[in-house]
Structures are given as structure tokens and as C-alpha cells.
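Case 268 in the screening queue. Each case pairs one protein sequence with one candidate compound; here the compound is 3-methyl-2-oxobutanoic acid. For every case the pipeline is the same: read the inputs, emit a complex structure as C-alpha cells, and attach any notable structural observations.

Predict complex for case 268.
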Amino acid sequence: MANKSGALSATKITKMKEARDKIVVVTAYDYPTARLADASGVDVILVGDSVGTVVQGRSTTLGVTLDQTIYHTEMVARAATRAVVIADIPFPYCQLGPEEAVRASARVLKETDATGVKIEGGASRASTIRAVVDAGIPVLGHIGLAPQSVKALGGYRIQRDLDRLLADAAAVEESGAFAVVLECVQSDYASEVTKKLSIPTIGIGAGAGCDGQVLVFHDLFNFTDHAASETPKHARVYCDLNQILQAGLREYVSDVKTGAFPSDSESW
Ligand code: KIV
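Case 268 output:
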């Protein structure tokens, strides 16, 4: 479904900071969940490369491909009538430099109705962000914990280097990003970055001082496979889908086994 009047844009998201209107971001990877998010008043739907961990069952996001990103973004963008849809450029297109990043981002915009892309990395990714923005593609930055660099970081850890965070944030803003995600950053550092920037900060595990918040859909609803991952401390579970779905599925299994399903009224 194409965006209608009243739809948000990357520019409108940037302006929400000045208006002190908190920005609500959630990830989604398919049509029905994106429809729910859009109808609930979520401002930005992020087709995160977290699809690799929460949907594909991988231990990192590194295996997600550009074709998969496009496949999921296409479904999500079809559902969004108001929310801005942003696709995460998967590893390693942005790491390969500006040309590869522009090529990958342009494919996303050409083959889906997404508004823009997310690029992980700060100062070291400045020329890449600039090139994508210059190609007319809105960019959401992502600094602090960068999951695509998990092997170099030695794990998913809180980022505690304030000087680096400030330098990365300034580089992302100067490169033309319309907003920036701060992931797993000490709250007081995130507040300091938020005060220094004119573009909005969207926190995940970065405290209440950010201009907006982002959570992974499956964490919001405890829809994760606990054998593979724990719901992180920064995620609030608003409803326990795991329990609800398990109870429903058990009842279905029992009804089929005992012959309680289907009833006459459910038969043709
Ligand atoms: O991939 C993702 O879902 C993300 C968010 C956690 C910001 O990058």
C-alpha cells in the first residue's frame, strides 16, 4: 500500500526533536506485524538486520543478505500507510565503502517502498553515509554498539567510550543522517550526545534522555526462542506472546488428538 497524506517522512522525523515529540520506532519483518505497528501510531518501522537473530535463529546478524532485506522490506513497506520504513543495510555493503553502500541502498529503494536505509558505524563510516545521502537516500545512523562489528567488539557489550561516542555522533550528523540510533550506551552519555546533536537520537538500551526509543518487535512481545537468546534487560515485555501462542498451540494439538476439532460447525 502506498503512503497516503498524513504520512511521515525522514524530514518530519528530524523535526520531531525540536517539537519535543518523542519518536517511536519498532522493528518489523513482515506485512501483518508492520500493519499492526503502523495502525498503532509507531513513527518509524525498522526492517532491522535483527531479522537474522529473531526470525532466522542465527547467533549474529552477519549472515543476513541484501536479497533477504529487500524481501522483508517489500512486505513491511506494503503495510505502512503513515510510518516511515527504514531498511537496515546488511553486512558488509557499507563496510566495503561508499560505492557498494550506494549500490545496495539504491537497490532497496528501487525494489521496495522504503523511505530510507540504516547504516551502522560512526566516524569511520562518514564518507559512506555522505555518499548515500548525496544519492538522495535518507540515512538513519547507528552508533554505540554496532552488532555488525560484534566480532571486533568481542561481544554485545555496553559502549563506555564517551569521546568516541561524541566523535561518532558528530560525524553521523555532519554526514547528513536524519537521525541516529544509540545502542547500548550508558544513559548519561546518551543524554549528553542527545543535547549536542540537532538530529534526533533513538535509543535502545540508552536510557530515557534520547529523543526516541526503538525496540525489536520480538523482544516487546517475548516472542523469542529462549534457547537461542535472552530478552535483553533494556526491553520491556508488553505482552507474553510466547505463553499465549504456546497455550493456543497445545490446545490445538489436544483438540485434534481427541477429535474435539473440527466440530460440525467448522466442517463443510
Ligand atoms: O537490527 C536492528 O533491529 C537494529 C535495532 C536494534 C536498532 O539495528
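Case 268 observations:
- The chain has a mean pLDDT of 95.
- Strands lie at 23-27, 44-47, 84-88, 116-120, 139-144, 179-183, 201-204, 212-215.
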